[in-house]
């Protein structure tokens, strides 16, 4: 709810913000997504993940979408692009903790035909061969 005295533009910016948290666990880059992954956020996500993937120790990418509230076609493009990069070098991209609304977007886009979905980050890490 918009509070009295709050700037409408600032309120929208806060509600539509996007944040990324990355952590490398041995050979897996864990990327936790928060907020709305739209065309404004897609470029920043692409750059951040690509930079982290340059590290020779990273073989797999784990996308934790628990905090992701929205994703448009730009987000789908970023995810598919990282999938192709990883696949070309023998790695895997796994998605976990997807909310029902974002899961529907993944399903409509056919992403789960090429990406593996796991319920929890800890389980996804185990399936990628990383002890948690």
Question: Could you please describe the fold and organization of this structure?
Answer:
The chain contains five helices and five strands. It has 132 residues and is an alpha/beta fold. Strand 3, helix 3 (73-88) and strand 4 form a beta-alpha-beta unit. It is globular and about 30 Å long. It starts with 7 loop residues before the first helix and ends in a 5-residue tail after the last helix. The protein has one domain (18-127): 2-Layer Sandwich (Transcription Regulator spoIIAA), CATH 3.30.750.24. A five-stranded mixed beta sheet has the order 1-2-3-4-5.
Descriptors:
globular; Transcription Regulator spoIIAA; alpha/beta; single chain; 132 residues
Main sheet characteristics = 5 strands, mixed
Are there runs of 5+ residues with pLDDT below 50, and where? 8-14
Helix proportion: 40-55%
Q: Report the CATH topology name.
A: Transcription Regulator spoIIAA
Q: Judging by the overall fold, what is the CATH architecture? A: 2-Layer Sandwich
What's the CATH H-level superfamily name? STAS domain
User: What is the radius of gyration computed over CA atoms, rounded to a whole number of angstroms?
Assistant: 15 Å
Structural class: alpha/beta
- The percent range for strand residues is 25-35%
* Domains, number: 1
Q: Give the CA-based shape.
A: globular
Per CATH, the class reads: Alpha Beta
Order of helices and strands: HEEHEHEHEH
What's the tally of helices? 5
- N- and C-termini, Cα separation: 39 Å
Mean pLDDT over the full residue set: 88
Number of strands: 5
Q: Strands of the biggest beta sheet: in what spatial order?
A: 1-2-3-4-5
């Amino acid at each position: 709810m918009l509070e009295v005295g709050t700037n409408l533009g600032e309120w929208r910016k806060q509600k539509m913000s996007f944040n990324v948290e990355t952590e490398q666990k041995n050979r897996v880059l864990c990327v936790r997504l928060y907020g709305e992954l739209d065309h404004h956020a897609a470029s920043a996500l692409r750059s951040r993940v690509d930079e982290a993937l340059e590290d020779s120790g990273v073989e797999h990418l784990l996308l934790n979408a628990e905090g992701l509230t929205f994703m448009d076609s730009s987000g789908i493009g970023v995810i598919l692009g990282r999938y192709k990069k990883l696949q070309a070098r023998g790695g895997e991209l796994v998605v976990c903790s997807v909310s029902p609304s974002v899961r529907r977007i993944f399903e409509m886009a056919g992403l789960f035909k090429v990406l593996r979905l796991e319920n929890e980050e800890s389980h996804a890490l185990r399936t990628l061969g990383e002890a948690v």
